[in-house]
Amino acid sequence: MTSCFREGHRATYEREVQRLYGLLRAAWERAVEEVLLESIVERYRPSVQTQHIAKIADIGEEDCRILDVAMTTCSRWLAGHDQAAAARAPIPESNVLKADIEALESWVASIRTRRRQ
């Protein structure tokens, strides 16, 4: 993907970035379900595990802010989320995408570490 960017294959690079941000958004959604909400609520499961609700008492404002920023970023680059031409920012370089992926890893690790203590 980096070579596409360096070699000027903009259309190929943009499609790949959109695909990867789609996967990253899905990963954030899964992290909310499995890590943040401790699988208390799961997609397509008809029940909610209310007996485990105390496990999520530590969710803080910063957890929510990080999640909101990440989901907004991912949505900006999803195929099908068309933006007005004037509002369209340049496609992120690979180092920005890498930092966005690392933000998810860090967020998940932070929650897991806090809950093990």
Give an overview in words.
With 117 residues, the protein is mainly α. It has one domain. Helices cover 62% and strands 0% of the residues. It contains four helices and no strands. The protein has helices at residues 2-6, 10-36, 61-77, 94-116. Helix 2 (10-36) runs parallel beside helix 4 (94-116) and helix 3 (61-77) runs antiparallel to helix 4.
The total strand number stands at: 0
What's the number of structural domains? 1
Radius of gyration based on Cα positions? 17 Å
Helix amount: 55-70%
Q: The biggest beta sheet, please? A: none
Q: What sequence of helices (H) and strands (E) makes up the elements?
A: HHHH
- What is the count of helical runs? 4
Relative strand content: under 5%
Let me know the average pLDDT.
88
Task: Please tell me what the overall shape is.
Answer: elongated
Distance from first to last alpha carbon: 39 Å
Residue runs with pLDDT of under 50 for 5 or more positions? none
Structural class: mainly alpha
Index terms:
117 residues; mainly alpha; elongated
How is this structure best summarized?
By secondary structure, this protein is an all-alpha fold. The protein contains 4 helices and no strands.
Architecture blueprint of SSEs:
Blueprint: H1 2-6, H2 10-36, H3 61-77, H4 94-116
Helix pairs in contact: 2-3, 2-4, 3-4
